[in-house]
């Protein structure tokens, strides 16, 4: 059985940063990542962009290439294309690698599952042609594929970034339909002064918006009542802005209203979670050093609560130093010394985060379906009305509702409907999301062929070689 | 809160008992420590089978099978029951000999619901079965239901008849004072003339509060379900001598069981899976049905099940206290019996007797045995 | 309409998507190759039969499950193209019968 001091799952900013530190400390560290190349979602293909002009994606993306090369040179073992499907709190990891299930053990585990976009269940969100803004980013970064004449709708920095990137590349954009309500600006204003300490971040955001405005793209502000038009494919977006109804024609609609931690890995491990009311999502409960409710399992990066790429790097380094200490490689004092500046940075980020979280917090109208026939569960085609019927039949718990209606039973394993179900039940029960809870998840974390599992024998660790 | 009958456990046995008692006019409270259908009743494989049952269970199981055929109409809710037949496959001549020996015993006892089929009929009914298989045994009334839905259907019907089901309510203590059972729950206190123990994997603890000892153990039988695949098997499938068990639902998903057990962590209300055993179940499934190589496993789980040493349930009155009854320890095949067990317990509670011989299910049947 | 910003023709492979021959670049995801070819329908929803397409393109929505070389439930956004690959829109409903007894 192959055993490591530390196994890191996920080679995004947090995982790569942690691996560099641990390797430097002399720990035997392995990084498992599903993708062929390190980088995670944010730095996807940053080191080998297929784009003729990758600089147009901006300096933040370019910085990813440097981190990737430092990671690749760090001495940490990088298992690219290793898709972990079971993480045990006993330190055992089962993962698919070149079509086979392999196994390894580690004393310490660091999970860096990253973030995913908050589902946006507006009417028509299941039509072909409706995708997330993150999808536009992925297609652009890894395959240099873009959609001409798309509508971008929603709110948040990631949405503005992709619109700006499209414009820089000369890709026509039909419209930016911005949904941040006026009230959010008023609510966020008092938080602004403290957020100014992260002036650089704020400036970046503002310059994106300026850039978009200067391009002459149609921008609609404070939009509401969004609805995708079309019967078989998306044909456009209908919405109300400033009291007037608009319809913008487009066969591609990119939606976005923030990101949330990717929960399936931490949930399937049975780690403790709590509801983050500022970011309106579940997140795994960790201490300042990333230790979860199971001491030898740490979590860092957006998967432990949204912090952004720079925050994720800092959190990864902090978790790595703590793991070094747990492994007996450095003293507590050394750990404290080595984490001081990153912890200070993370703490300085908080006022900025609070400002962003408040300004771009998901509106009820976008994070919960408004119409009874809007699908909540895309896999099993369960609408809000179906769930309401199940609730009225006594299924008050997310798992009971799942058993009764099949909502959350499909291949996405609740990734799309989980937060929506917590939200709806909280509303119907008139209780907190915390009281309602979430699905009980299990391994495998994604579809696993019967053929592959059938070929799995307990000791298969040569894997790593 | 006061009622005629307090039922501990909101699984299918508890909810079916509540339904039949309420129908007969009794006031009933069901207390459930988690939510109704949370454990074995909600997460089992949903098999509704007569085939291969222990002789002692057959009279009850046959009566229950009759009830299943019209249960949806009776309860006014969908239990997901589908009569699809069940076939246990004979892999070789040894299996066929086993079947023939059982057939003689069954016929002697007057049971004729199991019928041996030959290679051709097997292939006819299961075109995708491996060509090595030589035959099997079939039961026509058998099929499956959706466990949580069936449990929920009984609960809803019971509630409609006036029963109350209280969830997140764990019984912390139970004592008999005079003619009354006093129960302290985690939320409230209860008083009842009669108490019924349907507490599944936790039933030994309730039995102890009542005054009865019982050698109950628990385990975590594991299940896997695939993503949808094209339909290839209508009947529910098992095997005579191998750990093969699966059913393809109408929606195309295939539920694979087979009895392999994971790890039961009762104290923490959870189970863990044994992936090496699940891998073996995959190999067996693909060996009998090569088409399953294309299947994608979507979820795996295990529920907490209560087992008795002889794999037969406890059904009947308490031996050390008056006005207390038990129904638990179904050893991973109690789901099918739920409908009749509800009737039996209602008859016992109200009339003191029932039409079945319950002696094989006495709670004290192991008292003088060394296990 | 989706299009590729790459203008050279290095490292090309050819795959078959629902009968249409599609050229794609080595390393490209099956989904983006389908998108550029205008083959955006990845699967039929099992109950309603409605057309579905990739939503997240990063492996979390499972909307892009297609049949690749006879194997169903493959996430097109995570699989990479290969020369000669056969991709079909996945259509498994309550009425779909298996038709490959010879497997």
Could you explain the architecture of this structure?
The complex is a heterotrimer of chains A (465), B (371) and C (103). In chain A, the strands form 6 sheets. In chain A, strands 1, 2, 3, 4, 5, 6 and 20 form a 7-stranded mixed sheet that branches. With 465 residues, chain A is an alpha/beta fold. The radius of gyration of chain A is 22 Å and the shape is globular. Chain A folds into 3 domains: 184 residues, 3-Layer(bba) Sandwich (FAD/NAD(P)-binding domain), CATH 3.50.50; 139 residues, FAD/NAD(P)-binding domain (3-Layer(bba) Sandwich); 64 residues, Arc Repressor Mutant, subunit A, CATH 1.10.10. In chain A, 37% of the residues lie in helices and 23% in strands. With 371 residues, chain B is of the alpha+beta class. Chain B has 2 domains: 188 residues, FAD/NAD(P)-binding domain (3-Layer(bba) Sandwich); 136 residues, D-Amino Acid Oxidase, Chain A, domain 2 (2-Layer Sandwich), CATH 3.30.9. Helices cover 29% and strands 27% of the residues of chain B. Chain B contains 10 helices and 23 strands. In chain B, strands 1, 2, 9, 10, 11, 12, 22 and 23 form an 8-stranded mixed sheet that branches. In chain B, helix 1 packs parallel to helix 7 and helix 1 crosses helix 10. In chain C, the strands form 2 sheets. Chain C has a 5-stranded mixed sheet with strand order 3-2-8-6-7, covered by helices on one side. A two-stranded antiparallel ribbon of chain C has the order 4-5. Chain C has 1 helix and 8 strands. Chain C has a single domain, classed as Ubiquitin-like (UB roll). Chain C has 103 residues and is mostly beta strands. The mean pLDDT of chain C is 93. The chains are: A alpha/beta (465), B alpha+beta (371), C mainly beta (103). Chains B and C meet through loops of B and strand 7 of C.
Entry summary:
Chain A is 37% helix and 23% strand.
Instruction: Please name the fourth-level CATH homologous superfamily of the largest domain in chain B.
Output: FAD/NAD(P)-binding domain
How many strands appear in the DSSP assignment of chain B? 23
What does the average pLDDT of chain B come to?
95
Number of helices of chain B: 10
- What number is the mean pLDDT of chain C? 93
Oligomer state of the chains in this structure? heterotrimer
What portion of the residues of chain B fall into strands of 2 or more residues?
Answer: 25-35%
Low-confidence runs of chain C (pLDDT<50, min 5 residues)?
A: none
How much of the sequence lies in strands of chain C comes to: 25-35%
Structural class of chain B: alpha+beta
CATH hierarchy class name of chain C: Alpha Beta
What is the CATH T-level topology of the largest domain in chain B?
Answer: FAD/NAD(P)-binding domain
- For the record, give the distance between the C-alpha atoms at the N and C termini of chain B, rounded to a whole number: 40 Å
Secondary structural class of chain C: mainly beta
Alpha carbon gyration radius of chain B: 21 Å
Task: Pick out the low-confidence regions of chain B.
Answer: none
Number of domains of chain B: 2
Share of helix among residues of chain C?
under 10%
The major pleated sheet of chain B works out as: 8 strands, mixed
